[in-house]
TrEMBL record:
This is DSD1 dehydratase. GO terms for biological process: D-serine catabolic process. InterPro entries: Ala_racemase_N, D-amino_acid_metab_enzyme, PLP-binding_barrel. GO terms for molecular function: D-serine ammonia-lyase activity.
């Protein structure tokens, strides 16, 4: 019910944090799911099953070796891995810093190295550093800083 409310009844474009959640929503008819946690390489076969099953199954990458894992596990039937580059804009939990030159190199590799296997959909940042905030002003400051970091990265 929560997923239907969140998507206005469309059963699409939902973000989850575990593969169990992804399977749950897929079983409920959702067909556009983002696993909003960096690619779990040890569970790549489970991700591939969802990618084959759904209209769109998106994964996050934040390391070159994760891209290599995807390229070594191509999808069948004309499907491509749908990838978002995970940026760390201050949360410190996962992702590559947008000011790190390696972030731009990884974005270029995702976009250009194997377009028949992998598609760069966009960049993703999670403001988990707001969890300890006290008040709207502190949250808005983090949101502005994150937005600025993402837009700066996109411009680069």
């Amino acid at each position: 019910e929560g997923g239907l409310l969140a998507t206005g009844g469309t059963r699409g474009a939902i973000a989850v944090s575990t593969l169990a959640e992804a399977r749950f929503f897929a079983d409920g008819g959702f067909d556009d799911i983002l696993l909003a946690y960096p690619l779990p390489a040890a569970r790549l076969d489970e991700c591939a099953e969802l990618a084959q099953r759904l209209r769109a199954f998106h994964v996050l990458l934040d390391r070159p070796d994760a891209l290599l894992s995807l390229r070594q596990r191509p999808l069948a039937r004309g499907k491509r891995w749908l990838v978002w580059l995970k940026l760390d804009c201050g949360n410190g939990r996962a992702g590559v810093r947008p000011t790190d030159p390696a972030a731009l190199e990884l974005a270029r590799a995702i976009a250009n190295d194997a377009p028949e296997e992998v598609t760069l959909v966009g960049v993703y940042a999670h403001c988990g550093n707001t969890y300890s905030c006290n008040g709207v002003d502190a949250i808005q400051t983090i949101a502005r800083d994150t937005t600025s970091a993402v837009l700066g990265f996109m411009a680069a």
